[in-house]
Design brief:
Elements lengths: L1 H55 L15 E3 L2 E3 L1 E4 L5 E6 L10 H7 L4 E5 L13 H16 L4 E7 L1 H10 L6 E5 L5 H8 L5 H4 L17 E6 L7 H8 L7 E6 L13 H6 L2
Parallel strand pairs: 4-5, 4-6, 6-7, 7-8, 8-9
Antiparallel strand pairs: 1-2, 3-5
Length: about 280
């Protein structure tokens, strides 16, 4: 009787062991697949971290025509300017988009501000400027440029388009600007990146966050937001969130109907919107 019981127990043990042996290869395969997936995800995170600035900045050469007025140096880096000179106390500083040659914006700015000197900054790496673009470097360059221009023209309007809207807004929170114009502005580049790369921990990876919402409440000057009705890059909801960061009545809203992110400046009403009309 005991022999039969022992035989039955041994048979059950053998069956269990045999089950482990037959299931072991699939388990190993599953573990290997999980490890490969984790390594692939980690590799994608590393690639995104290393390539992020090439995804954010698209340096453009400066078009022939208006020449840079000397430029200026900051921290040993030569920065180029496109300038439309005008005598008198009034000027406009312009900060462009991430893939813009700011020289191309002289015409609409001249139409909007005929009696102001126009000074357009070519970011580091753009339009013949030296250096490599980055949020902190651009912010510092913008402050230095304002101080340089303000010493000659005490009445300064600051205009920023797309990426440059964050540059202009941060500047306006630190310096006494007369007015701020934000074209196709965003509330935060970080939030835009999160929506574009939802699978990745963008908050940990992104170095240049351009969080305009942080600076909007610190801006005392009047603000005009000029937005494209069909902006395919910066959702209207992001621009609307930014508008809500300002004090009641501080920010004017100018919607250019029928335009997109890159076509807004082609509309005849664009120059009037810049001027605040």
């Amino acid at each position: 009787m005991q022999l039969v019981a022992c035989s039955a127990s041994a048979e059950r043990a053998w069956r269990i062991l045999a089950g482990f042996r037959t299931s072991a290869p699939p388990v190993r395969i599953l573990v290997a697949l999980v490890v490969l997936a984790v390594l692939a995800y980690a590799g994608a995170c590393v690639a995104l971290y290393l390539m992020q600035r090439s995804l954010l900045y698209f340096p453009q050469p400066r078009a022939l025509g208006l020449q840079a007025l000397d430029g200026f140096r900051r921290d040993g880096v030569l920065l180029q300017l496109t300038v439309r000179p005008r005598p008198g106390p009034r000027a406009v500083l312009y900060f462009g988009g991430n893939g813009e040659d700011v020289s191309a914006s002289v015409a609409p700015l001249a139409a909007a501000f005929p009696d102001r000197e126009l000074v357009l900054l070519h970011y580091r790496g753009y339009g013949g400027s030296e250096g490599v673009p980055g949020e902190e470097a651009i912010a510092g360059d913008a402050l230095a440029l304002f101080d340089r221009v303000h010493a000659i023209h005490p009445d300064v309007v600051v205009v920023g388009r797309s990426l440059g809207s964050g540059v202009a807004l941060r500047l306006a929170s630190r310096r006494p600007v007369e007015r701020v114009v934000l074209v196709t502005p965003y509330d935060s580049v970080l939030e835009l990146a999160r929506s574009r790369f939802p699978m990745f921990p963008v908050g940990l990876l992104l170095r240049d966050k351009f969080e305009s919402w942080r600076y909007a409440p610190q801006v005392p000057a009047p603000v005009t937001l000029v937005v494209a009705e069909h902006d395919e890059l910066i959702p209207l909801a992001s621009s609307e969130r930014l508008r809500g960061r300002f004090a009641p009545g501080q920010a004017q809203w100018r919607l250019i109907a029928g335009t997109g992110h890159n076509t807004i400046s082609d509309d005849p009403s664009y120059a009037r919107a810049l001027a605040g009309h």
